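Much of the work behind modern protein science is quiet bookkeeping, done one molecule at a time. The protein below has been through that process, and both of its lines are reproduced in full.
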Amino acid sequence: TAYMNFKREVIFEPLSMNINQAVLWTGISKSKLWEFIKEGKIKISKPGGKTLIVTKSLKKLIDAAVIQEGV
């Protein structure tokens, strides 16, 4: 997925990100991210044994929270 920022630069969204990147991207703590992973609310991939969060599933989780809260 790509979008433009306010400078009209094209920004590409990563397909996946590591836990630390997800913390920075969302503001959700590491422990809460791991909890969501264990509950199956966030999908992960483990290429070469490294845990990567699938960005699309993280966005779905956030979008669902926004809808539930009526924001």
